[in-house]
Amino acid sequence: MSLYAEVTARRRRQALFDVLVILWIVVWGLVGWVVHRQAVDSASGARRLQEGGTGVATSLSDAGESLSTIPLIGDTAKKPFDEAADAGRQISDAGQSIVDGLDALGALLGTLTAALPIAMAVLIWAYVRMRYARAASRAVTHRERPGGAQILALQALVLGATGIEEALATDRPGADHGFHVLGDSATVRRLADARLGALGLHPLPPSS
Question: Taking every pair of C-alpha atoms in the chain, what is the biggest distance, in angstroms?
């Protein structure tokens, strides 16, 4: 399959198009990453809440353990600290849930932000390149087959091609440029070369 033209100028334009598509993908990938990072950074308050809750729970739990060693009243004195430590752990868990939720939201927003423009670019690139590849591959096959020049000439007449006016030029006044021109080998060759040139391919070999 001919993904790229044989003529340098056309091939360079195709390569430039590829580079632009790659740059587009990179740019939108970075945009998606920035959106994700902003969502993650917005969770800094929730992280402080989670860390503070954990610190408070640890401190209160340690204090309760120290009080539990007091004879007779140790267990009674420890209970309020344990309850407060549990509340601190609940605060820590709530902060962690917020952090996890913002991380997931950031990943989703970043993906959605980048995915649509990237998918559109890839689909457009694939459509343009595959359409060209099919047409160019068929043209190359016709160019190399005996009698393929007539098919290329017919395609030039039906689809249009740059240089078709020159290919049909004639010195006969009032000449009709209908499909009967395919009976003229010189005109067929010019039309076939016009079709090949429109696809950025080399003309028919001299022996055709």
Answer: 125
Quick one: CA torsion of 171, 152, 4, 126, rounded to 10 degrees?
A: 120
The reply to whether 129 and 150 lie within a common domain is: no
pTM comes to 0.67
Give the number of domains in the chain: 2
Residue 124 corresponds to which tokens in the numbers above? 């457009």
From the list 120, 90, 106, the residue with the least C-alpha distance to 39 is 106
Are residues 20 and 48 located together in one domain of the fold? yes
Residue 70 DSSP code: S
- Do residues 129 and 3 make contact, with C-beta atoms less than 8 angstroms apart? yes
| Residues 163 and 99: beta-carbon distance below 8 Å | no
pLDDT in tens, 142-186: 888 888 888 888 888 877 655 555 555 554 444 444 554 556 678
Residue 145: left (phi > 0), alpha (psi -120 to 50), or beta? beta
Count Cβ atoms below 10 Å from residue 76 Cβ, excluding itself: 11
Q: What is the C-alpha to C-alpha distance for residues 46 and 91, in angstroms, rounded to an integer?
A: 10
How crowded is residue 176: how many other Cβ atoms within 10 Å of its Cβ?
9
